Amino acid sequence: MKQLIIPDKVQKEMLTDFMIMGETKGLIGGYCEDEFPVCYANEEMARMLGYDAVEELIEAIDGKVINTIHPDDREQVIKDIGDEYYEGLTYETTYRMPRKDGSCFWTVDKGKVVQTEDGKLAIISACYDMTSFVERHKKLEEKNMLSQATIDNIPGGYHRCSLEEGHPFLYISNRFLAILGWTREEIRTIFDNKFDNMLHPDDRNLSSDYVTRILDTRGHGSEKDQIYRLLGKDGYHWVTDATTLVKSGNQTFFQGNITDFTDFVKAKEKKEQEIELQREIIEGLGKEYFSVLAVELDKDRVLSYRESGENGKIISDFCRKCGNRWSKIIPSYAETMVSDNTNGEFENQLGLETLRSQEKDYSMTYEFKLETGINYHQVRVAFVKKKDGTRMAVVGTRNIDSLIKKERMQEEKLKKAYVAAENANKAKTEFLNNMSHDIRTPMNVILGYNQLMKSQLTESKQLDYQKKIEQSGKLLLAIINNVLDMARIESGKIKVDENYERVGEVVDEIISTFSSEAEEKEIHLSGSMKVTHRNILCDGTKIREIYVNLVSNAMKYTPRGGNVTITVEELPCEKEGYIKVKSEIKDTGIGMSKEYLPTLFEPFSREQNTTTRRIGGTGLGMPIVKKMVDLMGGSIEVASELGKGTVFTFTLMHKIADRKFYSQKTEAAETSEMGKI
């Protein structure tokens, strides 16, 4: 390969800028392009790398300067040079250069960007072999400083720092890294390789003062270790730092050793928090409790923290009388000052062994004896730990007599109010029951005579009057029946009476009952059924009443041309011998608002709008349905939307009728019918 020659202009610049301490340097240049294609190399560079000629070197590195840099160092070298190239740019970097035999040596590379004769930008590097410097440095270390093995075995974290701003690290021991959890690379990238950047912001002034004191004494003072926080991977660590100023040859630097005592600080903080908590508990109790005692459970000894007023003095006197022994205080105080009703519980709850066995705080109330009667006192027991780790019970006593008596007065008032409400409700129910019976009898008579009168009338006007009397009478009778049903339900007189029924027959009856009304209003009334076990035992009367109320409501609020659908479906039942029957009554009527739905099943509740005001009703139908469904152990749900309609769904569980049972019923019915023929 042809020997590359550097232009005279460039050679002069190199001689001016890169001659360092008269040493001979290896020179190599590369164009400012990807991987720096070689544009120049001298014989000294070839010799430094172990090659006999420049051509051999160029061939070995594939014509690329980047291949003269150890792979692990290339990223850092490129970063040191920078991203932007311009004529006159200079830099200095350090890296390892691989020799022909595979070994490496550390080099200091001082470079400059120049313009070549062909107009391109190129980097010309002067590389200095640092091998002799490293050897001298090692000898200096062996002579004046701790060996690497010794450093790595120091219990603390050994480190050396420069005196420059931020105190860049010159050396970090493995123990230093282990304490804080970082790697050398992480410290270099995250903290810019500076000690000060690892300090807690609040502690940097401490470190600054420490450094100033060390410099003032030039390393000959007897400065105490400094305490501050250094950031580790798992958070801040409390450390003590013993740092001195060291001068080695032409170098002056800080040499320090950190000791991690984070666990000690945390334990101390925790203990201080516990002590503060104990103080707060005692002070907190002391504000409203007339007596606050601390019971040392291991020693059976009592310390008095507060005795306030006459009641506090009484307890304090018992403590002194019993030699401040808790095991003697409690029985003596219970016998003398606690009522017979509560002294047993008092001794049981507050005895020494009970306190020793308890883990959680608790309270108890007792009756304190007075000459004029009793007062109610409350004892609060809270457990805390002493500095030596032993448990202590803080026992506070306060007077809650007014509170207890006030609560009891309120309870008594509530009981009286409840009894009065129950009596009033009972009287109302009895009144409605009697009134309904009294009104229903003459009402039936009126309707009966009205029906007889109908056959005697011929004039249309008279027939119209008769029809209105009949409609009003039926409405009034329905209201009376609803009131009577509600009264019977509330009085508890209504019971479930189960008999044999066929599911299909009940639904057919309901459809038949409302078919005329549906035809008159041009409403499409239909039913469907998916039931396997049709023979059941149930209260047919109440089920029919539920259907009547729901279908009647649907018919009432569905306009002409609408639909009312009854769907009956058998559901699986977990109880053997029983079935669940789900019934759904769906209409395309006026619907109900979401705001009204929660009050739907309340007595006398009706939605107030222009449509419902034109339709009569008592507001008792739905409450009766709900109570009957509840009485039979079922559930009922409703979904509705204004202008779209309503769906009522109720589910009841029924016992499947035994085949023999309903066969006998069927035979009996057939025999009865034959007797009538």
TrEMBL record:
PANTHER family: OSMOSENSING HISTIDINE PROTEIN KINASE SLN1 (PTHR43047:SF72), TWO-COMPONENT HISTIDINE PROTEIN KINASE (PTHR43047)
Catalytic activity: ATP + protein L-histidine = ADP + protein N-phospho-L-histidine
SMART domains: HATPase_c (SM00387), HisKA (SM00388), PAC (SM00086)
Keyword Kinase found: yes
E.C. number(s) listed in UniProt: 2.7.13.3
Domain spans labelled PAS: 38-88, 164-218
Listed name of the protein: Circadian input-output histidine kinase CikA
Record's GO cellular component terms: plasma membrane
Family statement drawn from the similarity comment of this UniProt entry: In the N-terminal section; belongs to the phytochrome family.
